[in-house]
Amino acid sequence: QVQLVESGGGLVQPGGSLRLSCVASGSIFSINVMGWYRQAPGKQRELVATITRAGSINYGDSVKGRFTISRDTSKNTVYLQMNSLKPEDTAVYYCNIGLQRVGVPGLYNYWGQGTQVTVSS
Known about the structure:
Blueprint: E1 2-7, E2 10-12, E3 18-26, E4 28-39, E5 46-52, E6 57-59, E7 67-72, E8 77-82, E9 91-101, E10 104-111, E11 115-119
Parallel strand pairs: 2-11
Antiparallel strand pairs: 1-3, 3-8, 4-5, 4-9, 5-6, 7-8, 9-10, 9-11
């Protein structure tokens, strides 16, 4: 089995910063892609950022220039540095990882439990 544990959410004022972390553990053979998505009340879940095993990065249009995704492959950890936060960034942020499991054929997709980010004065 594989587990994802997220941390770093909270309440921040507009213009502030937060850093999210997501650690993957368990029977992981290799990680193909790591990323963050978010879902605000009444809205669909949307892409925030992804990073592939090769290091290719993709950002959602609404966060480009403000958010930075990074990873520590030795720790199976992905980070999301969020700067210049706006009230419209308020959402539950979910970690997502695509990987191969030890001894099990195929590709698997896992979601974290979600962490709340609230941007408000």
